[in-house]
Amino acid sequence: MILVTGVSSSPGYKIALKLSESYDVIGIYNEHPVANINSIKYDLTKDPEKIIELYKPELLVHTAAIGNVDLCEENRDFCYNINVNTSRRLLLKAKQMNTKIIYISTDYVFDGKRGMYKENDTPAPINYYGLTKLVSENIALSMYGTVVRIAAVYGMGYGRANFGKYMVDKLSKNEKIDAAKDQFLSPTLNTQIGEAVKKIFEKDFNGIIHISGPRLSRFDFALKMCQVFDFDRSLVNPVSIDSFKFKAPRPIDSSLDNMLGENVTGIKLSDSNKSIEIFKGEYYAI
Length: 286
Hints:
Helix 1 (10-19) links the parallel strand 1 and strand 2 (25-29). The protein is built from ten helices and 13 strands. By secondary structure, it is α/β, with parallel strands linked by helices.
């Protein structure tokens, strides 16, 4: 049996959905129920050990976290309690019960000074969210878990609003959007994250691995969306990241090198047109 925390998040839902095609999966959510997945409501901050003791999973995929970067910056104790303290307790109990661990992390563990980070590059987070994720990465690795770093997740399904869906919602109504021309990242389709995690588990990969799309600015990503969806590209306004008044600093270039991820999973993560085509099919299927 496989346990997926944070099943109501964008990556968590797609991971659980893909794994459930071949395995018995139970998803854990705190506030937002999901469809098509066997799931239960459970507050992991209360007694995270209990859920491991109850289900005795073969694999724990831990995606649950406070992912709102600005919220983490302003509410550090709240963020640390969930992203670190609860994760530590959950992962420790999993290790004690010989449960395999896959911990879902982020490109924001890097400072963004150069981009195209490899798995063995030294992290240096510049915001509190990234720091909490790095701390829990180290906890997972100390327990022989696998760390899957993902970036700029977009797609359909559950979870917080994402830039990809926001763009399509706006552009499909011929509404203008602003997109940063000077912030670079690796936009990653949540559906492909689900496929990749399944392959990582089945291949018994251990260590750190990047599952991410190609390096793009947010502006270039928006133009690719326009190309695939046949939207008017003049609706996309290139702006500086400084025009967005974030409360937490953002890395300027947090793009990830995905060569290992592509080699291990066999998924063409760098083919952004193909990824956006998949997204387009899912968007119009709703």
